[in-house]
Protein backbone atom coordinates (compact mmCIF):
# COMPACT_ATOMS: atom_id res chain seq x y z
CA UNK A 1 0.00 0.00 0.00
CA UNK A 2 2.88 2.39 0.78
CA UNK A 3 4.29 1.82 -2.70
CA UNK A 4 0.91 2.65 -4.27
CA UNK A 5 0.60 5.90 -2.30
CA UNK A 6 4.13 7.02 -3.15
CA UNK A 7 3.78 6.14 -6.84
CA UNK A 8 0.52 8.05 -7.27
CA UNK A 9 1.75 11.00 -5.23
CA UNK A 10 4.79 11.29 -7.52
CA UNK A 11 2.70 10.76 -10.66
CA UNK A 12 0.20 13.38 -9.48
CA UNK A 13 2.93 15.95 -8.82
CA UNK A 14 4.33 15.43 -12.32
CA UNK A 15 0.88 15.72 -13.89
CA UNK A 16 0.22 18.89 -11.88
CA UNK A 17 3.39 20.51 -13.23
CA UNK A 18 3.38 19.43 -16.90
CA UNK A 19 -0.23 18.22 -17.44
CA UNK A 20 0.77 14.63 -18.26
CA UNK A 21 2.69 11.68 -16.86
CA UNK A 22 0.25 10.05 -14.43
CA UNK A 23 -0.39 6.76 -16.30
CA UNK A 24 3.16 6.73 -17.65
CA UNK A 25 4.81 6.98 -14.24
CA UNK A 26 2.18 4.80 -12.55
CA UNK A 27 2.50 1.96 -15.08
CA UNK A 28 6.28 2.16 -15.16
CA UNK A 29 6.77 2.00 -11.39
CA UNK A 30 3.86 -0.26 -10.42
CA UNK A 31 4.89 -2.83 -13.04
CA UNK A 32 8.08 -3.33 -11.05
CA UNK A 33 6.08 -4.65 -8.08
CA UNK A 34 2.93 -6.20 -9.64
CA UNK A 35 1.78 -7.70 -12.97
CA UNK A 36 1.18 -5.05 -15.67
CA UNK A 37 -2.50 -6.03 -15.98
CA UNK A 38 -3.05 -5.42 -12.26
CA UNK A 39 -1.16 -2.12 -12.46
CA UNK A 40 -3.35 -0.99 -15.38
CA UNK A 41 -6.53 -1.92 -13.49
CA UNK A 42 -5.38 0.08 -10.48
CA UNK A 43 -4.74 3.26 -12.48
CA UNK A 44 -8.12 3.31 -14.31
CA UNK A 45 -10.05 5.32 -11.70
CA UNK A 46 -7.25 7.80 -10.77
CA UNK A 47 -6.48 8.36 -14.45
CA UNK A 48 -10.14 8.82 -15.42
CA UNK A 49 -10.87 11.31 -12.62
CA UNK A 50 -7.72 13.40 -13.00
CA UNK A 51 -8.00 13.56 -16.80
CA UNK A 52 -11.70 14.41 -16.66
CA UNK A 53 -10.79 17.25 -14.29
CA UNK A 54 -8.11 18.41 -16.73
CA UNK A 55 -10.38 18.39 -19.78
CA UNK A 56 -13.40 20.03 -18.09
CA UNK A 57 -11.52 23.11 -16.84
CA UNK A 58 -10.33 24.06 -20.34
CA UNK A 59 -11.82 26.80 -22.51
CA UNK A 60 -13.10 25.00 -25.64
CA UNK A 61 -14.43 21.53 -24.82
CA UNK A 62 -16.98 21.25 -27.67
CA UNK A 63 -14.69 22.85 -30.23
CA UNK A 64 -11.95 20.33 -29.47
CA UNK A 65 -14.44 17.45 -29.57
CA UNK A 66 -15.49 18.51 -33.08
CA UNK A 67 -11.88 18.76 -34.21
CA UNK A 68 -10.47 15.65 -32.51
CA UNK A 69 -13.33 13.16 -32.50
CA UNK A 70 -11.66 10.94 -35.11
CA UNK A 71 -8.47 10.83 -33.00
CA UNK A 72 -10.54 9.83 -29.94
CA UNK A 73 -12.48 7.20 -31.90
CA UNK A 74 -9.21 5.80 -33.26
CA UNK A 75 -7.83 5.49 -29.72
CA UNK A 76 -10.88 3.53 -28.56
CA UNK A 77 -10.87 1.23 -31.61
CA UNK A 78 -7.11 0.64 -31.39
CA UNK A 79 -7.38 -0.31 -27.72
CA UNK A 80 -10.27 -2.72 -28.28
CA UNK A 81 -9.06 -4.25 -31.57
CA UNK A 82 -5.29 -4.28 -31.27
CA UNK A 83 -3.22 -6.91 -33.10
CA UNK A 84 -0.62 -6.70 -30.31
CA UNK A 85 -0.64 -8.91 -27.17
CA UNK A 86 -2.69 -7.14 -24.49
CA UNK A 87 -1.71 -6.49 -20.88
CA UNK A 88 -4.09 -9.23 -19.76
CA UNK A 89 -2.35 -11.82 -21.94
CA UNK A 90 0.51 -12.01 -19.44
CA UNK A 91 3.11 -12.11 -22.21
CA UNK A 92 6.72 -12.14 -21.09
CA UNK A 93 7.31 -9.36 -23.60
CA UNK A 94 4.90 -6.93 -21.93
CA UNK A 95 7.40 -5.43 -19.51
CA UNK A 96 10.04 -5.19 -22.23
CA UNK A 97 7.55 -3.41 -24.50
CA UNK A 98 6.63 -1.07 -21.65
CA UNK A 99 10.30 -0.26 -21.08
CA UNK A 100 10.91 0.37 -24.78
CA UNK A 101 7.93 2.74 -25.00
CA UNK A 102 9.20 4.66 -21.95
CA UNK A 103 12.64 4.99 -23.56
CA UNK A 104 11.13 6.16 -26.87
CA UNK A 105 8.99 8.74 -25.13
CA UNK A 106 11.90 9.96 -22.99
CA UNK A 107 14.24 10.28 -25.99
CA UNK A 108 11.57 12.09 -27.98
CA UNK A 109 10.95 14.49 -25.09
CA UNK A 110 14.64 15.33 -24.82
CA UNK A 111 15.54 15.56 -28.50
CA UNK A 112 12.43 16.50 -30.43
CA UNK A 113 12.35 19.95 -31.92
CA UNK A 114 9.26 21.61 -33.31
CA UNK A 115 7.15 18.95 -35.05
CA UNK A 116 5.75 19.98 -38.46
CA UNK A 117 2.12 21.04 -38.41
CA UNK A 118 0.07 18.29 -40.14
CA UNK A 119 -2.04 20.89 -41.95
CA UNK A 120 -4.29 19.31 -44.58
CA UNK A 121 -3.09 15.82 -43.52
CA UNK A 122 -4.84 16.17 -40.16
CA UNK A 123 -7.99 14.52 -41.53
CA UNK A 124 -6.32 11.12 -42.01
CA UNK A 125 -3.53 11.46 -39.45
CA UNK A 126 -5.95 11.88 -36.53
CA UNK A 127 -7.70 8.49 -36.81
CA UNK A 128 -4.50 6.71 -37.89
CA UNK A 129 -2.35 7.97 -35.02
CA UNK A 130 -5.28 7.52 -32.65
CA UNK A 131 -5.50 3.85 -33.62
CA UNK A 132 -1.74 3.37 -33.15
CA UNK A 133 -1.94 5.05 -29.74
CA UNK A 134 -4.76 2.69 -28.77
CA UNK A 135 -2.79 -0.39 -29.85
CA UNK A 136 0.21 0.69 -27.78
CA UNK A 137 -2.06 1.48 -24.84
CA UNK A 138 -3.63 -1.99 -24.97
CA UNK A 139 -0.17 -3.59 -24.94
CA UNK A 140 1.57 -1.37 -22.37
CA UNK A 141 -0.99 0.78 -20.51
CA UNK A 142 0.80 3.94 -21.71
CA UNK A 143 -1.24 6.50 -23.66
CA UNK A 144 1.36 9.01 -24.86
CA UNK A 145 2.90 7.68 -28.10
CA UNK A 146 2.18 8.98 -30.70
CA UNK A 147 -0.82 11.03 -29.47
CA UNK A 148 1.12 13.58 -27.39
CA UNK A 149 3.65 14.57 -30.11
CA UNK A 150 0.77 14.78 -32.60
CA UNK A 151 -1.34 17.06 -30.39
CA UNK A 152 1.67 19.28 -29.79
CA UNK A 153 2.19 19.49 -33.57
CA UNK A 154 -1.29 21.00 -33.97
CA UNK A 155 0.02 24.27 -32.45
CA UNK A 156 -2.93 24.63 -30.08
CA UNK A 157 -2.91 27.47 -27.55
CA UNK A 158 -1.53 26.32 -24.19
CA UNK A 159 -4.90 25.99 -22.43
CA UNK A 160 -6.42 24.22 -25.44
CA UNK A 161 -3.46 21.81 -25.58
CA UNK A 162 -3.86 20.90 -21.91
CA UNK A 163 -7.57 20.28 -22.50
CA UNK A 164 -6.85 18.26 -25.67
CA UNK A 165 -4.40 16.09 -23.72
CA UNK A 166 -7.11 15.55 -21.12
CA UNK A 167 -9.51 14.45 -23.87
CA UNK A 168 -7.01 12.02 -25.39
CA UNK A 169 -6.04 10.56 -22.03
CA UNK A 170 -9.69 10.19 -20.99
CA UNK A 171 -10.50 8.34 -24.23
CA UNK A 172 -7.44 6.14 -23.67
CA UNK A 173 -8.50 5.37 -20.11
CA UNK A 174 -12.04 4.48 -21.19
CA UNK A 175 -10.70 2.27 -23.98
CA UNK A 176 -8.28 0.53 -21.62
CA UNK A 177 -11.05 -0.03 -19.06
CA UNK A 178 -13.24 -1.61 -21.76
CA UNK A 179 -10.38 -3.80 -22.94
CA UNK A 180 -9.53 -4.94 -19.39
CA UNK A 181 -13.23 -5.58 -18.81
CA UNK A 182 -13.31 -7.86 -21.85
CA UNK A 183 -10.51 -9.88 -20.27
CA UNK A 184 -12.18 -9.92 -16.81
CA UNK A 185 -9.31 -7.95 -15.28
CA UNK A 186 -11.63 -5.36 -13.72
CA UNK A 187 -13.31 -8.02 -11.59
CA UNK A 188 -10.07 -8.21 -9.59
CA UNK A 189 -9.93 -4.51 -8.71
CA UNK A 190 -9.53 -3.61 -5.03
CA UNK A 191 -11.64 -0.43 -4.91
CA UNK A 192 -10.20 0.61 -1.55
CA UNK A 193 -6.76 0.66 -3.16
CA UNK A 194 -8.17 2.61 -6.10
CA UNK A 195 -9.64 5.21 -3.75
CA UNK A 196 -6.34 5.60 -1.91
CA UNK A 197 -4.50 5.87 -5.26
CA UNK A 198 -6.98 8.52 -6.43
CA UNK A 199 -6.61 10.59 -3.26
CA UNK A 200 -2.81 10.36 -3.52
CA UNK A 201 -2.93 11.42 -7.20
CA UNK A 202 -5.21 14.38 -6.45
CA UNK A 203 -2.99 15.48 -3.59
CA UNK A 204 0.04 15.20 -5.85
CA UNK A 205 -1.67 17.21 -8.60
CA UNK A 206 -2.49 19.98 -6.14
CA UNK A 207 1.14 20.11 -5.04
CA UNK A 208 2.35 20.04 -8.65
CA UNK A 209 0.08 22.89 -9.70
CA UNK A 210 1.46 24.93 -6.81
CA UNK A 211 5.06 24.04 -7.71
CA UNK A 212 4.47 25.12 -11.33
CA UNK A 213 4.63 28.75 -10.18
CA UNK A 214 8.07 28.40 -8.65
CA UNK A 215 10.11 26.00 -10.77
CA UNK A 216 11.25 26.03 -14.37
CA UNK A 217 8.91 23.82 -16.39
CA UNK A 218 11.68 23.26 -18.95
CA UNK A 219 14.08 21.93 -16.30
CA UNK A 220 11.36 19.80 -14.73
CA UNK A 221 10.39 18.29 -18.09
CA UNK A 222 14.04 17.49 -18.84
CA UNK A 223 14.45 15.65 -15.54
CA UNK A 224 11.15 13.86 -16.13
CA UNK A 225 12.23 12.54 -19.55
CA UNK A 226 15.67 11.51 -18.25
CA UNK A 227 13.94 9.60 -15.48
CA UNK A 228 11.66 7.86 -18.01
CA UNK A 229 14.66 6.71 -20.05
CA UNK A 230 16.37 5.31 -16.94
CA UNK A 231 13.20 3.55 -15.78
CA UNK A 232 12.48 2.17 -19.26
CA UNK A 233 16.03 0.88 -19.65
CA UNK A 234 15.84 -0.87 -16.27
CA UNK A 235 12.51 -2.50 -17.15
CA UNK A 236 13.62 -3.62 -20.62
CA UNK A 237 16.91 -5.07 -19.37
CA UNK A 238 15.48 -6.53 -16.17
TrEMBL record:
<keyword id="KW-1133">Transmembrane helix</keyword>
<keyword id="KW-1003">Cell membrane</keyword>
<feature type="transmembrane region" description="Helical">
    <location>
        <begin position="124"/>
        <end position="149"/>
    </location>
</feature>
<feature type="transmembrane region" description="Helical">
    <location>
        <begin position="161"/>
        <end position="178"/>
    </location>
</feature>
<keyword id="KW-0812">Transmembrane</keyword>
<keyword id="KW-0813">Transport</keyword>
<dbReference type="InterPro" id="IPR002781">
    <property type="entry name" value="TM_pro_TauE-like"/>
</dbReference>
<dbReference type="Pfam" id="PF01925">
    <property type="entry name" value="TauE"/>
</dbReference>
<feature type="transmembrane region" description="Helical">
    <location>
        <begin position="190"/>
        <end position="208"/>
    </location>
</feature>
<feature type="transmembrane region" description="Helical">
    <location>
        <begin position="68"/>
        <end position="87"/>
    </location>
</feature>
<protein>
    <recommendedName>
        <fullName>Probable membrane transporter protein</fullName>
    </recommendedName>
</protein>
<keyword id="KW-0472">Membrane</keyword>
<feature type="transmembrane region" description="Helical">
    <location>
        <begin position="29"/>
        <end position="56"/>
    </location>
</feature>
<comment type="similarity">
    <text>Belongs to the 4-toluene sulfonate uptake permease (TSUP) (TC 2.A.102) family.</text>
</comment>
<dbReference type="InterPro" id="IPR052017">
    <property type="entry name" value="TSUP"/>
</dbReference>
<feature type="transmembrane region" description="Helical">
    <location>
        <begin position="220"/>
        <end position="237"/>
    </location>
</feature>
<feature type="transmembrane region" description="Helical">
    <location>
        <begin position="93"/>
        <end position="112"/>
    </location>
</feature>
